[in-house]
């Protein structure tokens, strides 16, 4: 079969019912843009390769869609959105007063092996808070994440959370370069701990790294509820003052979030690492118990904006996986409630079509959606068809309605029908149908 009838692997068509779920998720994210003061932005789908080469992480770099344009410049389909946001802040928004709260809904591309929760084209909905290094900024991202999931009626979600600064500060004590730190954390994110430890040993042959590896192993074995983890963490890190400060920072962030009303569980992991190399502080992922893949993730990235020529600017954010949430809802057969009562219209005769269309235009001016049946079926078949599809009302017009300047309105659920004068139609719709 010719390729024109297929979509590229991992890039799927979105069907009407799936699109309803996607739009529902996007609407709830956009509501939170408004509620928390985030202004929506958009960046190009195609970016220069160099934007992501520096700090997006080895795993992402290997999965980027890379190509050359007609001028032989290396380009990519964006694999994630934090780097483009940082570029935007460093350039076009460099003189904007801080803090900046920016939101986006964007399609991203990675050459992953397609499976549940992993597509080569996928959507993220993000919140980026630029210009504050205070714990309240990190907590705000957790609070928003919690709010979005609650608005989507996902009540059993939980946070896996840590602070990459703990591991980074300990490795800095052993003169481990930032480049090697990035690679170690990337390997740890992939659960390749032996390779990570081997890299640590190779990177500093002049200094015994046994103690460093031992403390990382101890931290790897600590995870769970907040109080117990922080107690053990204070004991292990008591002789590492910088790492201890990072631990206390994480503790303060979580306490603020809890005090604000975030009641969902926090699974604290003191050796937690994420694949993206630009993280400098608190990092987290959001899960539901019956999914092994994170549905949201983010963290603090205080050095990224300066990498693109901007000022040293603290920042924290998250990227909610719209496509993963969409797949999760489909797998659970969870669909958004249709708050709009579906209306269809039917003309009994050809000479009343124009009259009916004029009436429908007046109804649409009220912000109410209504479609006209064009099947040429008999009215009994029309009633049966749209009743099965879940439509609420059927507007009927024929010679009698046209002559008397009225329409007939049939309630398809109650199987009742009334005649309404056009002069009373707007009032009836507002008072009776959509009150």
3D structure, described in words:
- With 435 residues, this protein is α+β, with helices and mostly antiparallel strands.
- It folds into 2 domains: 329 residues, Bira Bifunctional Protein, Domain 2 (BirA Bifunctional Protein, domain 2, 2-Layer Sandwich), CATH 3.30.930; 91 residues, 3-Layer(aba) Sandwich (Rossmann fold).
- Helix content is 42%, strand content 20%.
- The chain has 17 helices and 17 strands.
- It has a 9-stranded mixed β-sheet with strand order 1-5-6-12-11-10-7-9-8, with helices on both faces. Strands 14-13-15-16-17 form a 5-stranded mixed β-sheet, sandwiched between helices.
- A hairpin with an 8-residue loop joins strand 10 and strand 11.
- The chain is elongated, with a radius of gyration of 28 Å.
- The mean pLDDT is 93.
């Amino acid at each position: 079969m010719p390729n024109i009838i297929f979509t590229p692997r991992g890039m799927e068509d979105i069907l009407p019912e799936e699109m309803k779920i996607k739009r529902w998720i996007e609407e709830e994210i956009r509501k939170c843009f408004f509620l928390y003061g985030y202004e929506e932005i958009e960046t190009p789908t195609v970016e220069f390769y160099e934007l992501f080469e520096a700090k997006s992480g080895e795993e992402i770099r290997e999965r980027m869609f890379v190509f050359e344009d007609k001028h032989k410049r290396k380009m990519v389909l964006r694999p994630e959105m934090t780097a483009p946001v940082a570029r935007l802040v460093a350039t076009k928004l460099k003189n904007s007063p801080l803090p900046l709260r920016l939101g986006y809904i964007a399609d991203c591309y990675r050459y992953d092996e397609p499976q549940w929760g992993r597509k080569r084209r996928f959507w993220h909905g993000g919140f980026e808070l630029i210009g504050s290094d205070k714990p309240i900024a990190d907590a705000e991202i957790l609070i928003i994440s919690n709010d979005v999931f609650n608005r989507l009626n996902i009540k059993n979600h939980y946070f896996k959370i840590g602070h990459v600064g703990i591991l980074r500060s300990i490795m800095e004590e052993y003169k481990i370069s930032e480049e090697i730190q990035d690679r170690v954390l990337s390997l740890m994110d992939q659960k390749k701990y032996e390779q990570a430890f081997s890299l640590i040993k190779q990177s500093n042959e002049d200094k015994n790294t046994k103690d460093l590896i031992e403390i990382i192993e101890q931290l790897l074995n600590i995870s769970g509820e907040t109080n117990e983890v922080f107690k053990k963490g204070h004991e292990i890190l008591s002789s590492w003052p910088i790492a201890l400060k990072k631990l206390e920072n994480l503790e303060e962030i979580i306490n603020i979030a809890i005090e604000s009303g975030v009641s969902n569980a926090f699974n604290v992991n003191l050796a937690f690492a994420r694949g993206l190399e630009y993280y400098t502080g608190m990092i987290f992922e959001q899960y539901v118990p019956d999914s092994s893949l994170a549905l949201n993730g983010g963290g603090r990235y205080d050095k990224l904006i300066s990498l693109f020529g901007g000022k040293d600017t603290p920042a924290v954010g998250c990227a909610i996986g719209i496509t993963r949430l969409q797949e999760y809802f489909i797998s659970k057969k969870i669909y958004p409630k249709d708050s709009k009562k579906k209306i269809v219209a039917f003309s009994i005769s050809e000479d009343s079509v124009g009259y009916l269309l004029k009436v429908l235009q007046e109804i649409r001016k009220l912000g109410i959606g209504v479609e006209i049946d064009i099947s040429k079926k008999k009215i009994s078949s029309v009633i049966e068809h749209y009743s099965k599809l879940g439509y609420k009302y059927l507007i009927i017009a024929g010679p009698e309605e046209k002559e008397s300047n009225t329409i007939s309105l049939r309630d398809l659920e109650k199987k009742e029908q009334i005649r309404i004068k056009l002069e009373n139609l707007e009032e009836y719709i507002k008072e009776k149908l959509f009150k």
